Description:
- By secondary structure, the protein is an alpha/beta fold.
- The protein folds into three domains: 1-76; 80-206, Glutaredoxin, CATH 3.40.30; 224-357, Glutaredoxin.
- It contains twelve helices and 14 strands.
- The protein has helices at 11-20, 34-39, 69-76, 89-97, 115-126, 143-148, 188-200, 232-235, 253-268, 321-331, 333-337, 343-369, and strands spanning 2-4, 29-31, 46-53, 57-62, 85-86, 102-106, 132-136, 165-170, 175-178, 224-226, 242-248, 275-281, 297-301, 312-313.
- The strands form three sheets. A five-stranded mixed sheet has the order 5-7-6-8-9, with helices on one face. A five-stranded mixed sheet has the order 10-12-11-13-14. It has a four-stranded mixed sheet with strand order 2-1-3-4.
- Strand 8 (165-170) and strand 9 form a beta hairpin.
- The longest helix is centred in the C-terminal third of the chain and has 27 residues, at 343-369.
- The N and C termini lie far apart (92 Å).
Amino acid sequence: MVYFGQRKTDSKYLALAALAGEERRFAFYFVREPACAAKHGVEMKSVAFLTNFEGEGARVFKWPGGADAAAMAAWYEPEMIPPLAEFEEDIGRSMRRSRLPAVILFRPEDDEFEDYAFLYKRAAVANRGKAIFVWSTDGGDGAELAAHMRVTGGYRDETAPTYPSIRVVWIYRQARYLSYIAPKDHTVASITELVDSVLAGTAKLFLPSENRPSRRAPAPPGAVWRVVGHTHPEDTSSDTVDMLLFWHAPGCPHCQAYHPEFSALARRLRAYPMLRFGAIDAKANAVAGADVDRWPLLRFHARGGAAGAAGVPVAGDAREEPAVLQWLLDNSPALKDAGLTSIADLDAANAILEAEEAKVAAEKAAAASE
Length: 370
């Protein structure tokens, strides 16, 4: 990074000096000679960022703004990254600070000279300035990145290549994408098409999901359905059934404490099958539009799907059974259609149901003992 000017009291120089006190990834220079500025195509009293990366040669970027150190730092961040780099801590920092998507080739280190690795490098040069291009293994500095992009660990999309594979993360938009084409089958044009679709917002988001649960046998009355990312749209947009969905996470003590209460509530309303209860692991499953940033969380989806993926908050986000139950009585079309209007009516109906269940159980026991 160079300041071309005569005095160190100039405002742009002072902004650059403030950056130099914090930035350790490249050098800073102060140049007084107008001839040197002219050689690089810039005028005096200006800031320029000079790079000379393999595959693209020397480049000069002139800072277009004023004496703003923070704005300068955001401006040069994408330009200081090589056309293609191995993922490591500094590159990760640039990925977080830049507003560009990052394209990642996950590959074994020994594949450096494979044809697909060379082609990926050509694609990186061809798409310079549109995205950050890196490659990474699934270990070392790249282990956390590989887990985040579901190269390792569970909940992978088994229809996409895993390792090696090409994936995209756009931290600025909190979005992840997969390429469903194996790296060896890609071309520069197809990788460019992937980048362009991400930038245009037409690429399919990668939303991790557990595998679909088996639902061959009907769930018993009062059961809590297991919902996953793949089934969430159909589970929450039925034309006939309401859904109360419990978002939880492994290791969350509040979630663990609430599980028995939620199951008890489902059992208490087991006589009303048009109101279904479901639970979804918020860490293992992502749902576009659900916007779940905390848990435990209850969301209600009335039949017809009008609430969308996000659902409707329940009882002001209370979880105590009386509050949730009263809210359901007031808001569930399924319970209203069944004529259930009060907790007293529910308790009376359950007393009759429990007597019938006890009678059936006794008859079965008697038959088994004969």
